Amino acid sequence: MNQAKVNAINCLLNSTMPKNKNEPLIDMNLESWKEIKNFKPRFINNNEDPQKMSFMNLDVAKSWIRSKEFRVDPYMQTLGTSMNPKELHDRINDKKMLIETAVPFINKYYTVLSTSDYYIILTDETGTILFTLGEQGEANAFYAINARPGANWSEQTIGTTAHALSITLGKPVQLAGPCNYCMVLQDNISSSTPIIDETGDIIGTLVVVQMTANRNINKTQIHSLGWVISMGYAIEDELQLRKRNYDLKAVNNTLQAILSAVDEGFITLNTDGIITHINKEAAKTLGKSIPEIENKHFTEYMSNRIPFDKVLQTGKPIHDYETTIANGNSEVQYLISIEPIQNDTGEILVGTVIRISRSEKVNRLVTHRGGSEATYTFKSIIGKSKAINKTIEDAIKFSQIPAGILLTGESGTGKELFAQAIHNHARPDGPFVALNCASIPRNLIESELFGYEAGSFTGAERKGRPGKIELANGGTLLLDEIGDMPIEIQPVLLRCLQDKKVMRLGGNHYIPVNFRVIAATNKDLYQMVQEKQFREDLYFRLAIFKIIIPPLRARDDDIILLTQYFVEQISQRMGLIAPDLSKEVLTKIKNYSWPGNIRQLENAMVYAVNMAQDGLITINNLPDEIINDYNSNNDMDSISNRLLSMVEIEKRAIENTLTYTGNNVADTADILGIGKTTLYRKFKEYSIILPK
Length: 692
Ligand SMILES: Nc1ncnc2c1ncn2[C@@H]1O[C@H](COP(=O)(O)OP(=O)(O)OP(=O)(O)O)[C@@H](O)[C@H]1O
Description:
By secondary structure, this protein is of the alpha/beta class.
């Protein structure tokens, strides 16, 4: 109870006069009762100033003056204006919380009042009556003067009353009958208190009116004001409680709405580990419905290894604890964070919140941020040549089946680009993770691939780290330059591909993984198998499907297309208008042998666009090696420069033609001008293996 309330009650109990603004206004001086009654006609008829009368309370006197200014008729018998049923219905609806809170209190107080000749009125802040209660006799008398729900009894409509003054002064008021402005009320004693909400606004008044005929006025004076004030305070406290409950419910509903909108799982546990709340996503993760799980112990659904006790003991949160959760027959990897819930003093723990994120999702984010992102699709692969179209066709076909794909082709032909396109075709929502086996030190490949547990080897991060295989879960792992995969790691990789699970270095449990592996190389991997530099079993696992990316020189039709594409792209990136290409440039580009393939062509165009003048790329704007064409197949000098043997030239011719025809033996033999039998003999001689 606040100090103002305590003051008011003390004041009443001690029967002292109010000393400050919050103390009640009590105008119950019995000696002046008659004087006020006699003076009132002089004020009404002769306009004598009530403020100058020593027996008049100043606030009451001012209210009389206002009442007169409002042209209130002091002799009226039916008081105030009335609402129509619709208006009353709406007002009662607006004040629902006040009425629902106050009425039970009014009923309770009424039954304990020592006499039953009281009439109790509840008004809103405008003085409109919302509820009344009284014995039949009192009720009839009060109804006769319009003291009923829907009547507006404000200072403007019926002049000075206890409750009108309570609204104006913001404090309890007790008035002797003659102080009321209207004559019809002058034999009553009324006590009123404003009802104030948590923001300090008056939202209504509570009034107890008593007929004074044959009563002991002194006793009534003390009791009725005390009752009304304590009833008012009880209503205010209850209203605040209801408001808090209402706000809490609103916060709770908002929280529930947020939790059901997020795509992460949230579970709250009490200190005994019982699930008190769970959102839809968490229930989905556990493969159950919310009612099935609520009020159960968390270990019924989640591993008892989850360090829930530790959080309760230390009060410290745990972030990104990795665990598996069984959902039906499958086990899925999750990251779990546990936050302690404290009470309002921040000391006692009242439970914990568990956040469950699917590792796959987190990994996708990590790989996104780590730069491994698949941007290319089959549509963004430029080319119209027969060779590239056949390659794309095969790649699309193979991408539907979740088996290993081996991409072979010279450096810069677009192997990584094809890997990305396959990924985006088959698993666009999963992560795309690339590991270049040639660019990381051999001794780090293992930990990069399989990850490691916390503190598993010197220099390891304290928290441990998932490897590329784990990161690729749900997506695609590209093992670029697979020929450089250390032979000792190959059996572990093979086991992982076969069993679809991985164990981190220093770990003691397997983590289930589901990913598509694509290997890429510019080496003859099968040759390496024969030379025992690459394991045969792993080769067959990786090369279930083989795609040979044709070199640029076998894609005659694409060279100009790609050139124009790069010129436009590079110019756009630089904010330039794309320059034209002179005829000589186009011929040169077409005839050049492009040993560095598309990457070389792209780089050459970066150079050319930068060198171009007056919107034209001329022959002099090309890099030297292209102008001088050291690698031209037509140039006998360059052949001798590279000291190729006839055997090498023949082998290359066969390989290039095979690539060009998409490994069609009959077409290849035709183009080379030899018979098919001779061609098969040459395959054997040069160890050329056709993809199955
Ligand atoms: N068909 C194509 N359309 C557009 N750009 C292409 C195409 N093919 C390759 N490129 C571009 O050529 C460059 C080389 O491609 P990529 O890196 O995929 O080749 P790679 O065969 O994986 O090379 P390496 O063997 O050196 O790793 C990239 O910049 C790529 O964007």
